[in-house]
Design brief:
By secondary structure, this protein is mostly helical. The chain has one domain. The chain is 68% helix and 0% strand. It is elongated and about 55 Å long. It starts with a helix and ends in a 10-residue tail after the last helix.
């Protein structure tokens, strides 16, 4: 959520807490991942850039929904760019946050 919205809600509704839902958190994380992809492959040379071309939608999918034959190009992309791998793993971990039943599990 945007900071101005959160600050106004905090001023008007003193006892209320802001709740972040899974959809919006993952939407933001996917946006950050996509922006990181753009920056990384913009800086990279043409040889490395060819690994990233046409892989945007594959990169934005969750790992468990990527079919077996599509995982190889994704692994090749991660082998070339470790920063992208870290961002992808971070987003996957955010997705798993909603599966925990207790706070101690997190």
């Amino acid at each position: 959520m945007h900071r101005p919205y959160l600050s106004v809600v905090g001023e008007v509704l003193k006892c209320a807490e802001a709740i972040f839902d899974k959809f919006h958190v993952l939407q933001h994380a996917s946006g950050v991942l996509d922006e990181g992809r753009r920056q990384e492959f913009f800086r990279a040379g043409s040889v490395i850039r060819k690994h990233g071309r046409g892989r945007r939608w594959l990169l934005l999918r969750r790992w468990k929904t990527v079919q077996g034959s599509k995982r190889a190009p994704l692994r090749a992309l991660f082998a070339v760019n470790r920063r992208l791998l870290k961002a992808y793993v971070f987003r996957e971990q955010l997705d798993r946050l909603w599966t925990y039943k207790t706070r101690t599990g997190v």
